[in-house]
Each structure stands twice: as C-alpha cells, then as structure tokens.
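Example record

The entry below shows one chain as it appears in the dataset: sequence first, then structure tokens.
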Amino acid sequence: RRVCARTPEDAIRFVGQTLELMGKRDFRLVPGTDSVDARITNCLKTWSCEDPAPKRVKPIPVQVLHAAQRIASANGSLAMCASARLMWTGFFFLGRPGEYCAARSGNKYFRLSDVQLLNHGHNLDLWSTPEETLRRSTDAHLNFSD
C-alpha cells in the first residue's frame, strides 16, 4: 500500500491522542496551548506539497441511471432490471452522499446506522434481526446524518 501525505499525519495524531488518553502530554502540541508545534506543521505541509491530491473521478450522471431504469422496465428482462437496481445501489450505498446527492458534507460515507430496512412497513433492527428476515426486507432507506 502506498504511503500518502496524510498517512504520517494520521499516525502522528493517533500517537499524540493515545498518549493524552494515558494521561501524558501530547507531544505535538506546544505546552500550555492547543496549537500544534510549528516544526511538525511545517513538516506535514512539506509532505502534502510533495504528494499531489488524487485525481477525482466524476460520478455518473443521475440521468444515465434514470435512462437505464426506463430501458430495463420497458424490456422487462429480469437481468436488465437487476442490473439497473445494482446501478442504483452502487450509486447510493457505495458513494459519498455529499458528492452524489448534494448533501451538506461531501466526505462522509454511509454507515450502518444510516441504513434502515423495513419488512412490509415494519422497521427491522439491524443488530438483532435474523439474517433470513433481513434478506426478506421489502424496503431500504438511507438517512443522511451529520
């Protein structure tokens, strides 16, 4: 796995926060303040300048999904309908809601707590409902949470 600019920053933050949880001083911070030591800040800034941001892939336009759904519905083929549903599932469940759905924040993935499954209008508890009942759910809802 490639080490990117943010990887060392995350590691340093993790170590500092762990030390703080153990009752020790967070070595990143200037004593008596909440500001990160300038030497660490400059080092991390230099690393981020050397490591370019990833090239973003534009999401598929929603119009394409609507067209695929219309074509699949008109055709009536089970395979085409399943493919259209998989496209919608991938679009929402695997995407970042802020990028694809115009939510307030673009860098949060859906979590399990954001998913709601229903079986004929009855809300299913994702943690305690047997797998077989979850598979028979009739509706799935995604909730945008902060």
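Notes for this example: The helical segments are 6-21, 38-50, 62-75, 78-93, 97-100, 131-135. The mean pLDDT is 77.
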